[in-house]
Amino acid sequence: MPKRPHTLDQGFRTAPSRVRLMRRNRKRRDWNVPIRRCCAVIACLELVVFLAAYPGFRVRNVRIEGLQTLTVAQTFGAAHVPSRTNIFLMALRQPLVRDIDRLPVVDHATRAVELPNTIVLRVVERHPYAVLSAAGGYWLIDRKRVPYAPVDGPVPGLPTIQSVGLAAADPVKLGSPIRSDWLIQAYSLLSLLADKPSLQPKLITVDQNANLCLNRLDNLRINIGSPEDLPSKLWSAEAIARAIGPEAVNKTEYVDVSSPTHTALMLRHPKLDPGHA
Prior knowledge:
By secondary structure, the protein is α/β, with parallel strands linked by helices. The protein folds into two domains: 71 residues, membrane protein fhac (Ubiquitin-like (UB roll)); 143 residues, 3-Layer(aba) Sandwich (Rossmann fold). 32% of the residues lie in helices and 24% in strands. The chain is built from eight helices and twelve strands. The protein has a nine-stranded mixed β-sheet, with helices on one face. The chain is elongated.
């Protein structure tokens, strides 16, 4: 049978069918992904609401660790822990440890959560490094040059740092570091004396000209002078201290190492010795 000849009208009649076929083959939008995301968000919100409202997650216990001089009542009062608060909301509450950090005796504090209902406060208190004599009183001071507690006077086993002059009248603010040059110089001297048992200090004084003076545990006075070249000066002082026997200490007025190359030893005159008969 002969084929029917193709005409132009037939081409126009088949065009709409091709358009419909292309539309059917076009990729349809996948609604599964946004629906799953919305479901996940709703599930998370429901979980948050459940955790916030569940009575089993309310704070019932507060455990405080690391106390040495502070009392539980002082720490608990500074923390301001409200009763029967959700433990997750309590863990996000910043003032819980921030107010404890403000206590002068506290170096730093951290918090931890023990499910289902316990908050743990870990407190690290300051440790005394020396006794500061200033502003008409005595204060315990730590390695960070922070005075944190008043004391009645020199403490056995701790060196006393004293300033002579206008700096001695500067007010002392508990819990705030002292950045004065004279105290920084005294701390530099203390750090160098750590491995020198023959020069262990009882008192370190700094005068208005920043000159350092060291009194040993046996009250032998060693004039160090300016803080420059401290290692050389301490080497000379240690050599002289080793040469002086215990009997000679009572006859010695002071040792001067302010010039490392020209050291001096001043003997106490018998007529000026209050113990001389």
